[in-house]
What we know:
By secondary structure, the protein is an alpha+beta fold. The chain has 2 domains: 8-52 and 126-237; 54-124, no CATH class. The protein is built from 7 helices and 11 strands. The protein is globular, with a radius of gyration of 18 Å. The mean pLDDT is 87.
Amino acid sequence: xxxxxxxxxxxENFALNALKKYYPEKFSECVKSECxxxxxxxxxxxxxxxxxxxxxxxxxxxxxxIDKEFSEIKKEHLQKLGFADKLTKSNFEYLYExxxxxxxxxxxxxxxxxxxxxxxxxxxxxxxxxxxxxxxHAVEEKLQKLNNNxxxxxxxxxxxxxxxxxSYNGIENVIIDDISKKILDNLKNIYNNTTYSIIFDTIYIxxxxxxxxxxxxxxxxxxxxxxxxxxxxxxxxxTK
Length: 240
């Protein structure tokens, strides 16, 4: 990990790398563009992020401390965000974490030299409703731009990055069922009430550990799980 993480370019790279990995038949060959972000053969791909003001503050914190050792992080900064000032072992080898009831998890890599390096942040699933509202806002905003500003291709797709982890606490199936239903219900509501003539054909909702690909013609979706190893590989590749 390095300072390139949590930048606009990082998220754009992460989304594209995830789509290339899990949908290679569609996204293996892409050319950088503007409005939309990428052109993949006859598919236009726009990438955005569902983010809250709270997440924006966390971004600022992480940009300041990413790649730094735990002891370099000021305790008052941790405490202000509700994080414990001590690390505990996570379920994964070489990873340690500190948790906040409101702001999620900071994960640290236990390096070979003994240091604990801040690697990444994930939020709690208690903010699912906030996630849905942010996804809804992102879709509405991008629909407006698609109809007013963007080049339209034979197919127009949207990828939305959500800074959340769904697969933990032993209740992932309940969480995934809940959030997938809410995503579909909200997208149906947007599309049933839109006045725009051009719509996104497929909307990819990309979490840190899950992808939902929603076909907006029939509102069926395909679900793919991103393993922990795959996430780390995608994250590292996206900083380059």
